Each structure stands twice: as structure tokens, then as C-alpha cells.
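It would be a great kindness if you could assist me with a short task in structural biology. The matter concerns a single protein, recorded as an amino acid sequence and a row of C-alpha cells. Could you please explain, in whatever detail you think fit, how the C-alpha cells follow from the sequence? Thank you for your consideration; the sequence and its C-alpha cells are set out here:
___
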Amino acid sequence: MQVNNLTIDELKALIRETVRETIEEFLADPDANQTIKDNFKQELLAIKKRREAGFKGIPAAEVMQRLDLGNG
């Protein structure tokens, strides 16, 4: 296919398709079709259950203090 042989409508359709494909590539989920290890999945589920039970975890300020990261 030669671009100079395309009609205006065919060229517009080609550009639309190219733009659509490019946007899909940028918005694609890089983790799609990936698997996670069972132990990691179980840990995430445990965290979710603790959150649902009302456990809030450690405040960020306390983590910063424990790690001696200060405020910059």
C-alpha cells in the first residue's frame, strides 16, 4: 500500500487506526496476563481483611520516624 495511492478518506482511516493503536499501547496494563505468587496473594488478602476489620496500620509519620527519615 502506497500512501500516495490512498484517497483522503482512506488516509484519515489509516491515521485514526494508527492513533487508536498508539493510545491503546500507552494505556495498556503492563501487568495484564501476569500471575502473582500464592504467598504474595495470601498476604494481600490478609492485609485486605485487616483493613476491613478496622486496622489502619502504622501512620506514615511514625514510619518516617522509625526509619529516621525526618522531614527532608
In short: Residues 8 and 71 are 59 Å apart (CA to CA). The mean pLDDT is 89.
